[in-house]
Amino acid sequence: MSKLLQVDFAFEGPFGQEMAEQLVGLAESINQEPGMIWKIWTESEKNKLGGGIYLFEDEASARAYLAMHSARLKAMGVDEVRGQIFDINLPLSAINKAPLA
């Protein structure tokens, strides 16, 4: 069963187009992660936050990615990575046009 992973953390930037230009390689590498279906990148320059919403094929893949990504971010100087794994209510999500197969 698919699982949704929500991640956020304190982030000083870059944001917007500069972020998009600098993190292309990271974005492309995320496509190679086992079980990853898609990611929506999230950012808040106002609140100094970065993160993402991910859809994984299963909970094991989501947990493995969260552990790896948390370690990567901590190596980059991020003190706290918040991550939550959620079940998805497919019938209600379909009503609201969620991008789920």
Automatic annotation (TrEMBL):
Q: What InterPro entries does the record point to?
A: Dimeric_a/b-barrel, YdhR
Gene Ontology molecular function terms on file: monooxygenase activity
* Statement: the UniProt record of this protein carries the keyword Oxidoreductase: yes
Which controlled-vocabulary keywords does the entry list? Monooxygenase, Oxidoreductase
Q: Which SUPFAM superfamilies match?
A: Dimeric alpha+beta barrel
UniProt keyword Oxidoreductase, yes or no? yes
Tell me where on the tree of life, at the top rank, the source sits: Bacteria
Pfam families, per the entry: ydhR (PF08803)
Know the name of this protein?
Answer: Monooxygenase
Q: Which organism is it from?
A: Shewanella insulae
